[in-house]
Amino acid sequence: MSHLNQKTVKKTISFNGIGLHNGQASNISIKPGKPNSGIIFKRVDLSNNNYVVPNFAYVTNTALNTTISNEFGVKVCTIEHLMGALFGLGIDNALIEINNEEVPILDGSAKEFIKKIIMTGFQVSDIPIKIIKINRDVEFKDGNRIIKIEPSKLNLSIDFELNYKNVTIGKQRNVVKVYEDDLTDIYNSRTFCLFEDIELIKKNGLAKGGSLENAIVVKDNKILNEEGLRNKKEFVNHKILDCIGDLYTSGYRMLAKVTCSQGGHYLTNQLLRKVFENNVNFSIIEIKEKLLPNSYINKISFKSIA
Fold this sequence. Notes:
Helix content is about 20%, strand content about 35%. The protein is of the alpha+beta class.
């Protein structure tokens, strides 16, 4: 079977935990999907109108997470880490059943999703993958925050920069080639917040399930988590994970160069909306062996995760 054919999980994979923002117990099951079905969420706690497609046009909230909703107001929150894992592992099709409105946060990264999916294995179809090819530069700005997407012939590269006043986070930048680089540090990097922001976040009804077990908390020049950071660029690497997951709301993997400064869920979503408002900006192509080297698509360059 070609590595450029559509892929799903070999069998059902289950996860359980609490939602970062609603603090409620949540169970999800990732089930094999048929070719060309894409990624679909199903709210199994509801009996009607319970399918939600993770598409950028259906993103209804980007405040500290990515939330998708269907036309009936049924929503699924905090999809970005799971979507990043599915993108990185080349999962084209899957049905994700969930019994609550929020995907469990687990340890605040994509580590457990990645580990369990790899252990379970993949089912490869005989249907070629489709991929989005960016044809023109598109840019979105919000004050001093900016995100830009440009054409790329053989890869998806993400150049991301953070710039925090906090001395511990400070200014961080990393550049990754998603189809070539070892993404272990990206997948393992946890969500984070400043200690002084926690009270306001909770007043806004968010982070009810947040703890040092699923988030990095920074207070002045100190990281409050006893184990410290998992990698030197964990802050910006987590933002790259979020970016990968949010890019997958385009429906397919893509060939592009993405550059972002001080961005997040909102900027990535607005960029996708701007890209897809004009058909000249992109093409959706079917990738076959003769068109592209295997090494550039669906390559899992991945160290074992402890």
